[in-house]
Amino acid sequence: MTSPLLPTFARADLQFDRGEGLWLVTRDGERYLDFGAGVAVNSLGHAHPHLVEALTTQAAKVWHTSNLYRIPEGERLAQRLVDATFADRVFFTNSGAEALECAIKMARKYHSANGEPGRYRVITFEGAFHGRTLATIAAGGQAKYLEGFGPKVDGFDQVELGDDEALRAAIGPETAAILIEPIQGEGGVRVVEPAKLRALRALCDEHGLLLIFDEVQTGVGRTGKLFAHEWTGVTPDIMGIAKGIGGGFPLGACLSTEAAGKGMTASVHGTTFGGNPLAMAVGNAVLDVVLAPGFLEHVRAMGLLLKQRLAEIKDRFPSLIVEVRGEGLMLGLKMNVPNTDFIAAAQAQHLLLIGAGENTVRLLPPLIIGEAEVAEGIERIAAAAGRLEADLRGERRGAA
Ligand SMILES: *Cc1c(COP(=O)(O)O)cnc(C)c1O
């Protein structure tokens, strides 16, 4: 049967009817353990009672008013984000790409407002992912997303992660900002060393550049801190977030210092849906849970446990797994076999995992995961690895 959907996704033939916590259930009642969380979005799992309550309560009051009027839930969420971070200002969006669009526009406008409109170029890093709009595919710089879509949006210079010489050489009189994910997600769970981020901060200060962090995937507790950059002691001037902050409701935000936001005055930027009352109610509810005492400690403990257990699996199956990477509950397995084979083998064990660059498999379970679910996931990963290894041995024997 041909689907009416634009075939931009190679979808697994699975459809879920409902969810509860770490579990997704098909129409036939088959249960899958969700270690993907809709790509780090379902931070509190599925059908979290507090989120359901927040959304349905707001749904009975008012859904949308536009940003022509004050939205008290949004003012509250913005204040809470400001109180918890480096930021003084928040702009709400519907997605990560829009949060990054705002960040990029803000950086350009900042220099323009300072009388330097020629400073508009942004330095990004090889392997980056910042979204699918025309500007954010240019920022990400990946050929597979750029090809065939006409001239690449001007103003992005990409250097290799860790190539300090190239980085210095890329900074010119037109450079406005440096944009980086503290841990590359789509790129393959590549952790940027804290020392590197500190060096970027120093470089930005030296050259009057703005430092932009893309914490769309790493943010809102994913790595065991509210934001991943807190592990490094470095703060950005601008930060894009999304994914986890909405817990499954489309929500993103661009956070900035007062200084960095100086050019973003009335009517220079906007959004129809961004920050609507439904999204704001859910965002506040997510923060209620994530900011509660002990929650981030829980994420760190579960992350450590999962990483240790994955290291044991790697030692048991060295022919399949090369490396365990990541921080908190943003973990990756660099594979020796195609990552798609491993994901398929896990799916056969009713465990959902997600692929990423550098032939890695991502584990991004909901942050509410408990010890029993870590054990359950590890059991399924071991079973999948065992099957895959046996299949490969069989193939080799068949070929001999
Ligand atoms: C997912 C992601 C984006 C894009 O978010 P969308 O909501 O899909 O637009 C941007 N940056 C990073 C790091 C991401 O993981």
UniProtKB/TrEMBL annotation:
GO terms for biological process: L-arginine biosynthetic process. Pathway: Amino-acid biosynthesis; L-arginine biosynthesis; N(2)-acetyl-L-ornithine from L-glutamate: step 4/4. The keyword Kinase does not apply. GO terms for molecular function: identical protein binding; N2-acetyl-L-ornithine:2-oxoglutarate 5-aminotransferase activity; pyridoxal phosphate binding. NCBIfam families: argD, PRK01278.1. Homodimer. PANTHER family: AMINOTRANSFERASE CLASS III, SUCCINYLORNITHINE TRANSAMINASE. The keyword Transmembrane does not apply. Its main location: cytoplasm. This is Acetylornithine aminotransferase. InterPro entries: AcOrn/SuccOrn_fam, Aminotrans_3, Aminotrans_3_PPA_site, Class-III_PLP-dep_AT, PyrdxlP-dep_Trfase, PyrdxlP-dep_Trfase_major, PyrdxlP-dep_Trfase_small. It is found in: Cytoplasm.
